C-alpha cells in the first residue's frame, strides 16, 4: 500500500488515555504511514484539548499540513465553543487540495459547520484513540474502510438491513447530498448559521448514551423544524449506551423508529454500521451519493472526488460491513 | 382563603407514583380547594399518560373546565409529540377567562408553544405529584407562592443573589417579556414554529440531570442562534442532578456561567429559586415583568393581569424565596 501523510490533532476533549493515543499512532505507523502529531495534540485545559484559541490553531495547522488525512484524536465536547473561530476557508482549501478530514461524535459540529459555510465534504469515521488505539485493536472492517479512503479505492459502502426493517419497495436515490452524524450534536446546531440547509439529502444519524425518549425528542425537533420533510431518506446508524427505564413499559428504540416512519414520507433505513461502536464505515458528509436497496442489502455509493479523497480511482464499492 | 377550582390532568408522562398523586390531591382539598381530576389523569400508554390523542383531549378538557388553575400532574416527556395537535385557541381562550395553566419541566414545551402560537401566558411552577404530593410534604415557599397565585395576591418574587454573582451595577429592566423554563426542552424547540420569538425579553432557565458541558452546549446553541443577543437579561435557576466527571478538571457549572457572561452583553443573574428542587417560585411565561436588583436581592415583578391570574388585586410582591 501507499504510504500516506496522516496529521493527528485534537479539536475537542483532552486526550486522557495516553496509551490509546500511542497505540493508535503505532498502528498507523505500522501500516507504513507517516504520522505527524500536532504540537497541541496532548494539550489539556479543563476538559478540553487546550483552550479555545489552542484548538482553533490546531485546526488551522491541520488544514495547512498538506496531509492526506487530518485525523481527530477523539471526540468529547469542545467544537461547539469554537465554531465562530474555525478558519473555514483554509479548511475548504485543504479539502480541495486533497486532505480528508476524518472524525465523529463531537466532530459532527465541525463537519456540519464546514458544510454549511463552505459546501466542502469531510468524513465521518474513526478517531485515533477510539478506534486505531482501541485496547482490543482496531475493528477489521473499520480498518479496511479507512484503507479504502487512504488508498483512494473507497467509493461506497453497503450493509445488511435488519429483517424487520427491510424496505422491498425502496426506490433508488441518485445524486443526493449525504450528511448527518451525531444526532445530539446535529440538533445542537439547529437554528444557528452552522446548520447546513440540505434539500433532498440523505441524512444519517447515530448517538450514544441517549435514552430513546431523548432520541425521539431530537427527531421530533428535526421534523417540526421541517428538516426531515426535505430529505429523500433517513438512515439510522447505531444508538447505543443508554439504559432502559422500568417506566418505559414498551417504549423502546424500535418504537421510536416506527413512530418516525409514521410521521415522515421519506424512507427510514436502519442498521447502518456507524456510531459509537467498533465497526464503523466511513461516510462523506457533504458528498453526493446514490442510495439503493437490493434485497436485504442497502448501498451508499459516492463519486471518487469527494471530501479530500480525490486520489481515488474508479473501483467497485467494497461493502465491507455486510 | 377562597376555595378555588383546580383541574388536574396529565399531558406528559404517566403517573406511576399513585401515592404522590393522592397526597397531592388530598393536600389541595385540605386547603379547601375543589379538585377536579381529569378522566385520563391516571391513564398509561408506554411511558406516556395515555396515547397522543388521549393527552391532547385531556388538554382540551382542562381548557374547557373553567377551572381557576389547570395543574399538570407531572412532567417527564410527551408534549413534544403532540405540539401539532394542541387546541391552542381553546387554551388561549381559557387563559383569557382566568384559568392559570401551571407546570414545569416537559411542560415548558406546552408553555413555549402556547406563547409562540397565541401570545398567552402560562405559569412555570409546581406539579401535583412532584410538589403537592412530595413525600416530605410540599415546600413552604412553593406552597405560599401557589397561594399567591390562587388568591390573586402574587405580583412578583424576589431572591438573594449568590455572593459571587452579585450585580451591583444592574440597571432595572421594565416591561420585558418573561419566558423560559427547562433548558433542554426549550432548546428542543429551536428551529421549529413552537419556539417563541421574544425580543428584549427576560429569559429564565433551569435543568436537571444535564452535565455542565451539555448545559454549555445548549447555551451556545441559544447564543449562536441569536436568541441571547435579543434578551435584556438571562436568569439562571437551579441546575441539579448531574454527576461531575474526573475528566472535567475544573470545568464546572460556575465555569459555564462565567463563560456565558463573557459571551453575551445581557446581564446574567443566578440563584433563581426555580428548577427541579423543592423550593420553586411561580413565574409567568409570556408575562410582562420588571426586573431589578437592590443590594444582594433580585426582584421580578409582574402585572396583576397575566396568565389567568386576573383575579389579582394590587399587592406588594412577597419575595418569598429570600
What does this protein look like?
Chains A, B: The active site is at residues 105, 206, 276. Two copies of one chain form a homodimer. The first copy, chain A, is α/β, with parallel strands linked by helices and 322 residues long. The first copy, chain A, has two domains: 5-150, Rossmann fold (3-Layer(aba) Sandwich); 155-302, 3-Layer(bba) Sandwich (Glucose Oxidase, domain 1), CATH 3.50.30. Chain A is built from nine helices and 13 strands. Chain A has helices at 18-30, 52-64, 88-97, 107-118, 128-132, 140-151, 183-187, 212-224, 253-263, and strands at 5-9, 34-37, 69-72, 100-103, 122-124, 156-160, 173-182, 201-208, 231-240, 268-269, 283-285, 288-294, 297-302. In chain A, the strands form two sheets. A seven-stranded mixed β-sheet of chain A has the order 6-13-12-7-8-9-10. In chain A, helix 2 packs parallel to helix 3 (88-97), helix 3 crosses helix 4 (107-118) and helix 8 packs parallel to helix 9. The longest helix of chain A has 13 residues, at 18-30. The interface between A and B is large, with 38 and 39 residues.
User: Roughly what is the average pLDDT of chain A, rounded to an integer?
Assistant: 94
| Helical amount of chain A | 25-40%
Strand order of the largest sheet of chain A: 6-13-12-7-8-9-10
CATH class of the largest domain in chain A: Alpha Beta
What is the straight-line distance between the termini of chain A? 24 Å
SSE topology string of chain A: EHEHEHEHEHHEEHEHEHEEEE
Largest sheet of chain A: 7 strands, mixed
The residue ranges of chain A in which pLDDT falls below 50 over 5 or more consecutive positions are: 311-322
The CATH superfamily of the largest domain in chain A is identified as: LD-carboxypeptidase A C-terminal domain-like
Number of helices of chain A: 9
Identify the overall geometry of chain A: globular
Domains of chain A, number: 2
Fold-level CATH name of the largest domain in chain A:
Glucose Oxidase, domain 1
Oligomer, anyone?
homodimer
Which architecture of the largest domain in chain A per CATH?
3-Layer(bba) Sandwich
Active site (chains A, B): 105 (nucleophile), 206 (charge relay system), 276 (charge relay system)
Domain LD-carboxypeptidase C-terminal (chains A, B): 177-291
Family (chains A, B): Belongs to the peptidase S66 family.
InterPro entries (chains A, B): Carboxypeptidase_A_C_sf (IPR027461), Class_I_gatase-like (IPR029062), LdcA_N (IPR027478), Peptidase_S66_N (IPR040449), Peptidase_S66C (IPR040921), S66_fam (IPR003507)
Amino acid at each position: 500500500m501507499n504510504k500516506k501523510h496522516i496529521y493527528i490533532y485534537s479539536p475537542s476533549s483532552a486526550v486522557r488515555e495516553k496509551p490509546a493515543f500511542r497505540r493508535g499512532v503505532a498502528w498507523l505507523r505500522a501500516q507504513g504511514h507517516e504520522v505527524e502529531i500536532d504540537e497541541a495534540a496532548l494539550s489539556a485545559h479543563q476538559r478540553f484539548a487546550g483552550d479555545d484559541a489552542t484548538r482553533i490553531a490546531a485546526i488551522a495547522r491541520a488544514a495547512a499540513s498538506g496531509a492526506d488525512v487530518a485525523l481527530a484524536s477523539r471526540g468529547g465536547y469542545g467544537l461547539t465553543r469554537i465554531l465562530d473561530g474555525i478558519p473555514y476557508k483554509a479548511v475548504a482549501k485543504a479539502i480541495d487540495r486533497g486532505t480528508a478530514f476524518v472524525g465523529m461524535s463531537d466532530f459532527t459540529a465541525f463537519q456540519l459547520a464546514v458544510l454549511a459555510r463552505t459546501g466542502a465534504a469531510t468524513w465521518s469515521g474513526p478517531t485515533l484513540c477510539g478506534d486505531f488505539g482501541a485496547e482490543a485493536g482496531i475493528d477489521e472492517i473499520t480498518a479496511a474502510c479507512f484503507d479504502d479512503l487512504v488508498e483512494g479505492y473507497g467509493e461506497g459502502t453497503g450493509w445488511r438491513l435488519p429483517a424487520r426493517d427491510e424496505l422491498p419497495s425502496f426506490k433508488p436515490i441518485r445524486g443526493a447530498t449525504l450528511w448527518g452524524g451525531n444526532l445530539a450534536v446535529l440538533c445542537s446546531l439547529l437554528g444557528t448559521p452552522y446548520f447546513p440547509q440540505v434539500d433532498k439529502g440523505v441524512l444519517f444519524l447515530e448517538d450514544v448514551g441517549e435514552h430513546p425518549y431523548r432520541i425521539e425528542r431530537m427527531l421530533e425537533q428535526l421534523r417540526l423544524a421541517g428538516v426531515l420533510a426535505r430529505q429523500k431518506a433517513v438512515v439510522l446508524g447505531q444508538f447505543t449506551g443508554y439504559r432502559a427505564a422500568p417506566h418505559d413499559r414498551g417504549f423502546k428504540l424500535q418504537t421510536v423508529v416506527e413512530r418516525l416512519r409514521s410521521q415522515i414520507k421519506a424512507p427510514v433505513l436502519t442498521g447502518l454500521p456507524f456510531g459509537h461502536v467498533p465497526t464503523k464505515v466511513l461516510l462523506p458528509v457533504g458528498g453526493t451519493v446514490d442510495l439503493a436497496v437490493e434485497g436485504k442489502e442497502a448501498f451508499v455509493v459516492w463519486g471518487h472526488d469527494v471530501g479530500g479523497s480525490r486520489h481515488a480511482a474508479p473501483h467497485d464499492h467494497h461493502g465491507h460491513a455486510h
